[in-house]
């Protein structure tokens, strides 16, 4: 009789055999004094009524020690000096490391610095996203972060001996952009090309395949993982 009862419990999913707890994620974040440091280190842009906002978009590798490496920044409104200042200021800054189940993991993080002369908005904001999902989650959400301790799309792409694209946005040359949906477990569930010129179609296909094999920390809203868009970008220096 006892054996029958145990078998019934397992069949109903009530036993403990084979159960797997969901991973707990903490994305990389900004150090406590990072915003204060930016305000002191970067000269604010000369904003006008016609251009009341200037945004600098960045990505950085954040190690298990929390230090930022390989910082790249981009802006599209003519504030090149602001971009350069932000990029220099964010290099080797101390962030809070990402963790999975309490263990630190290296990640590639995107973020933006927004300068504004608008009523009701702080003059400087530091946000852990590029704004792709702001309409759905507000402006403070944390975008998906590539895990660098596991397969990540750019290193997989670079394994091709013909690959020449450089990661992230740039004013130099053309772009290849591929959209991925990352679920609440950090898995890529769909991909599609958004932009690729004819001579770079092979790159787009390779990035799609690489994304499908990559791992992420999922996007987060108020401490809860959420399904979100992620855009992989390559540029080609002239």
Automatic annotation (TrEMBL):
User: Which keywords appear in this protein's UniProt record, sorted alphabetically?
Assistant: Signal
Q: Which residues form the signal peptide?
A: 1-21
Report what the protein is called: TonB family protein
Cite the Gene3D superfamilies for this sequence.
3.30.1150.10
Q: Which organism is it from?
A: Marinimicrobium koreense
Keyword Signal in annotation: yes
């Amino acid at each position: 009789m006892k054996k029958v009862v145990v078998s019934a419990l397992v069949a109903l999913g009530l036993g403990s055999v084979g159960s797997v707890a969901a991973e707990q994620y903490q994305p990389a974040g900004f150090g406590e004094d990072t915003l204060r440091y930016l305000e002191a280190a970067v000269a604010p842009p000369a904003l006008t009524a016609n251009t009341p906002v200037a945004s600098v978009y960045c990505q950085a590798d954040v190690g298990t020690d929390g230090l930022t490496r390989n910082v790249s920044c981009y802006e599209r409104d003519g504030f090149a000096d602001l971009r350069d200042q932000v990029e220099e200021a964010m290099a080797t800054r101390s962030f809070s490391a990402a963790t999975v189940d309490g263990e630190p993991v290296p990640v590639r993080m995107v973020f933006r610095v927004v300068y504004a002369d608008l009523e009701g908005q702080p003059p400087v904001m530091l946000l852990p996203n590029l704004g792709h999902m702001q309409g759905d989650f507000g402006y403070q959400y944390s975008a998906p972060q590539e895990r660098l301790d596991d397969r990540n799309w750019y290193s997989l792409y670079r394994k091709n001996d013909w690959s020449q694209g450089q990661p992230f946005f740039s004013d130099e040359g053309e772009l290849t952009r591929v959209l991925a949906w990352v679920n609440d477990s950090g898995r890529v569930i769909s991909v599609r090309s958004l932009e690729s010129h004819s001579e770079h179609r092979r790159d787009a296909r390779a990035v799609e395949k690489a994304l499908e094999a990559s791992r992420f920390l999922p996007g987060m809203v108020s401490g809860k993982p959420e399904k979100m868009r992620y855009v992989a970008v390559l540029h080609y220096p002239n």
